[in-house]
Fold each of these.
Amino acid sequence: MERGEQTRRQILRRAAEIASVEGLEGLSIGRLATELEVSKSGVFAHFGSKEELQLATVRAAAKIFVDEVVTPALDLPPGVARLELLLEGWLAYSERRTFPGGCFFYAVQAEFDARPGRVRDAVAEYGRSWNALVRETVEGVPDLAVDAGQVAFELVAFLEMANAQSVLHDDPAAYTRARAAVRSCLDRAIG
């Protein structure tokens, strides 16, 4: 049983790595079996269909994201320090290439944004949850001088732009610029 779960985790980790570069449509049971040196029927037995593989990959990527970005920040009490750690956690997650294509969710959201279906719904739900968490974390900052929803929108935009610039243009300075933009936005908001 444990060996099967370990194999499943390995499959999903590799699937998330591939999807961060090639998208969820780039996943195939045959490719995963070949790369991980397991049988195609063994991979298929874990998921049953490409859609189930895609959904499981989204859940696995979300768990990695939560473990690396969200959980450390939630260990702090509400306030500026929690918000700063949450945002820095996201930048570090993207910058150190937890997934080769940068942020997994940034990479797959454009692929599914206009497609109906369960995979799109799952990607969208994780995006909504992240945006809500950032907004709620902003709201937890005392004496906020501006609209928390607007501040959260701007902060997420800075993070995503850093990811996009660093991946598409191979520009590591994008993270420095994003950190400066985040600092400036927080300074204005906390005033």
Note: Residues 57-190 form a domain with the Tetracycline Repressor; domain 2 fold (CATH 1.10.357.10).
Amino acid sequence: MTDFPGAPTTPSTGRLRVLAAMSGGVDSAVAAARAVEAGHEVTGVHLALASNPQSFRTGARGCCTLEDSRDARRAADVIGIPFYVWDLAERFREDVIDDFVAEYAAGRTPNPCLRCNEKIKFAALLDKAVALGFDAVCTGHYARIVDHPDGTRELHRAADAAKDQSYVLGVLDADQLAHSLFPLGDTTKDVIRAEAERRGLAVAKKPDSHDICFIADGDTQGFLAERLGTAPGDILDADGTKLGEHDGAYGFTIGQRKGLRLGRPAADGKPRYVLDISPVDNTVTVGPVEGLDVHALTAIRPRWCGTPAAGEGRYTAQLRAHGEEVPVTAVLGEDELHVRLDTPARGIAPGQAVVLYDGTRVVGSATIASTERAVGV
């Protein structure tokens, strides 16, 4: 069978040594099976990322349980490939969980999935894979890789827009992209489940995991409170009037409406939203929804999917994992980006990622450091 789209440049034999990251879900299992069917020498690996993993998942919440590890092993057995479990729990704690907590403590809103791709799956895992002689790491992400005759590669959106995961892969640099395989990028989720069933994979109907994998119960505020403790402060309106109190500014996110526990309603009777979180004086500022309108932003630590971009240009930008693209003008520098949106977007917070696209091609990603709003806070 011919190779699937997006395989790295192959040696003369056309056969690659591929390390397939197997989470225990249907996507990574089918991705591994497709890599085998494409003629590659595939080894499956499950990443043990939890120091004290639970035995079972609760529905679709969380991942990295012992059940997930066993599901991955059974899938590897059906596919007919060697299988190992690699313990990366300490690295995951340092690079993802500790970073997550520190970002919230600093009043920012991080994306742990993006950080995991950057630091774990395509750094720690890929580095180890290359050191052991593997040519590529294969995952079940929904994204496409386009190869050019000169050997360069581009990351593009998946064919299935509803499942596209290029946003959380925007942190990959050219070298990481050169060693990546995404066999599912041209396929829809329904087709993947049907294929898994035909292949006899027991995970064919297993629910997708969602939310934050290391907060299995979905209680992010409780998770942060356990690690950061109680830190009472004031909830203010835009003119500085005290409206209520909170137990920790880390428990709020920009754009939040529910759970504000305000002492009195707004004079106009309209809902109020979190507009600003200040760790310096431990205050949370709320106001009308119009105060969320962001028309420009500055982002730092850019990472380019291929040749580094520079100068001013027109792009589209995705500002949240499941957000829509918006047209922007961006000035790209070595250390930061300045992005101006054609139309304002709401709920954009420091700590989130802005990912730039040229058509379906991912140009790069950067971390939002500050925003400019039409209505001052």
Note: The first strand starts at residue 17 and ends at 21.
